[in-house]
User: What shape does this take?
Amino acid sequence: MPTNKTGIKKRSISSITGVVKRFIVSQLLVYGSILFIIFIVACALFPEWIAPYSPTVMMPSHILQPPNAVHLFGTDFLGRDVFSVVVHGSRDSLLIGVASVIAGGIIGGTIGVLAGYIEGFFDIIVMRLVEIIMTIPGILLALAIAAALKPSLFNIVLAVAISAVPGYARVLRGQILSIKRRSFITAARSIGTSRIQIFVRHVLPNSWSPLLVMATIGMGTSILVGSSLSFLGLGIIKEIPDWGSLLSQGRSYLTVAWWMSTFPGLIITMLVLSVNLLGDHLRDYLDPKSSRI
Assistant: This one.
């Protein structure tokens, strides 16, 4: 009998230790993600302070140098410092992600809120249109819109934002329908509160959590889609290329200068991963049903 109790106690201690270790690792990943996102934002806001060279300076004697102590990410086919170009290119890449999430969230959120609160014929028509748009893959829809418009920052943001609208609309509609059936909404109606007051005071304040989480996770997707459009030649044509354009330029030199595409690709991957980790953590924090230590 004592042996069984000892075994149970050891398994309990082992399970608790495993939970604590997973919690510590997850927290370290979240903090690391936040620090990396802060670094990328600093690169976008103050590139001159972080980049060691100007992104437009060409050094013919340093063409296609591999990563070294002087050039951390090596140099490209024009002799430019790849690290400096990546730092300066972060501004447009990050702007595409942030602006498209804001625009898509506002448009899609408004559609979803109105459809969920008004319901009836308006809800049926709007959501059927949203479902039709959702049958088209987001990257394909963004590609079609970008190809139909002239290459510019505004058009790229518009293309990425429109491709994200259906997702925001469906999530917000479901959240509004759920909130409308809660007891505090029924209580507000019973005391004669108008529909407008219920909507402004009770429905809207309780519907922001899923939108915030979705916007956080969607920012990584928007950056990835924007970089994909630039990679395909539908992005911004500028003297300082964004990350997608850097990937496109480096693909012709993969066999002789792997670093030209590898480092911009790693930055995109790490940023998307960091944003997704932060979004998952934010979802767990805002979800009252999630289990936390």
